[in-house]
Design goal:
Layout lengths: L5 H13 L14 E6 L4 H14 L2 E6 L2 H11 L7 E4 L2 H9 L9 H6 L12 E13 L23 E2 L6 H14 L1 H14 L8 H9 L5 E5 H9 L3 H9 E4 L10 E8 L6 H11 L2 H11 L2 E2 L30 H11 L3
Parallel strand pairs: 1-2, 1-3, 5-6
Antiparallel strand pairs: 3-8, 4-6, 4-7, 4-8, 4-9
């Protein structure tokens, strides 16, 4: 991800677009603009916005930050907020915006047809646009796929001192543990979290790619990672990273025999969107087969729609079963997940 400092540039651009005095745009004042508050920061996304403008003539003003920064900003702006569309890289972040009454329900036949029910808010306040699986990278010289084909095995004594994982405050880990609570209940999930801590090869540090590289370096035998981080290493320009994936492979554990845990990137129309119709059009465009294919090819996430095949190079890692659990369950479980992880000593 690019640095969050870009938010300053984006904010300046937005203020300039709003007028010399920096006033926020009023509702309906510019039918040719949509103001996007996004916690995603990828070159592929920029290409998407350019494509949307080419097709519709609607200019996308991009304001970037992490999800909590943008939620705080929208809250402070209140009813005068210029935000039209909020996009985040995790169902839990979308839920936090929803819980703060920052998103409004959207009725769209296009969105409902494109996005499966388990990948969107039941009331239409946000929609998943792309999927990622939270799975396991493993040392193929020491571990067999059968050793790590369930989530229980991540915490088993087989891997004492052999697990690399990022911190407990990672939203990806919070959503995974929230999903486990939904499936198993708090008692079994708490036991699992204690097993994870016992299996740590080192204190949590770094991001997902750091965990994968640590497996290659022999620091640990397995690591939790999002699928697209591994796919990027395997297909990037860095020869050393590509070499990592010759030794380190991916396993797709199953949760209760129903498939691997998946999360989403997604978006919802802001509660006070001054350009609501444009926001809906952008959201529908991001859910289109064209946009989902572009993101999958460029960012290596999986399309949310089951009718959109993953393009190369993502398709080489797309032959797995995704758990059908509703991603809307993750957010309400995150506070409990954080508490269980803290109690287990997962920092």
């Amino acid at each position: 991800m690019r640095t969050n400092l870009i938010i300053c540039v984006a904010v300046a651009a937005l203020l300039a677009a709003c007028g010399q005095d920096g006033a926020r745009p009023a509702a309906g004042t510019d039918a040719g603009v949509v103001n996007l508050y996004t916690a995603r920061h990828y070159d592929t996304d920029d290409a998407l916005y350019e494509r949307f403008t080419e097709e519709t003539g609607i200019r996308v003003n991009v304001i970037e930050g992490n999800a909590d920064q943008l939620i705080a900003r929208m809250t402070s702006e209140g009813s005068a907020s210029p935000a039209d569309l909020f996009v985040a890289a995790d169902a839990g972040a979308l839920w936090r915006a929803q819980s703060a009454d920052l998103l409004q329900a959207t009725t769209s036949e296009e969105l409902n047809a494109a996005i499966p029910a388990n990948l969107r808010d039941p009331e239409g306040r946000w929609f998943g646009l792309n999927r990622r699986a939270r799975i396991v990278a493993y040392d193929s010289n020491k571990v067999q796929p059968a050793d790590i084909d369930t989530y229980e095995e991540i915490a088993s004594p087989r891997f004492r001192g052999q697990l690399c994982v990022r911190s407990a405050d990672s939203v990806y880990n919070l959503s995974l543990v929230g999903a486990l609570i939904e499936a198993w209940g708090p008692e079994k999930t708490g036991e699992w979290a204690r097993g994870v801590v016992a299996n740590m090869a080192r204190r949590p540090e770094g991001g997902d790619r750091d965990q994968i590289r640590a497996v290659n370096a022999g620091v640990c035998e397995i690591a939790l990672t999002n699928s697209y981080y591994y796919i990027r290493l395997a297909n990037g320009e860095d020869a050393a990273d590509r070499a990592v994936t010759e030794k380190v492979k991916l396993a797709f554990p199953s949760l209760d025999g129903q498939g691997a845990h998946v999360n989403i990137s997604g978006g919802g129309v802001a509660a006070n969107a001054p350009n609501r119709d444009n926001a809906v059009r952008l959201l529908e465009f991001l859910a289109s087969p064209e946009a989902q294919t572009m993101v999958s090819a460029g960012n290596n996430e999986y399309p949310a729609s089951p009718n959109v095949p993953a393009p190369a190079p993502t398709d080489a890692y797309a032959d797995f079963t995704a758990h059908p659990m509703s991603v809307a369950t993750y957010g309400p479980r995150q506070a409990e997940a954080q508490s269980l992880m803290s109690a287990a000593g997962w920092r």
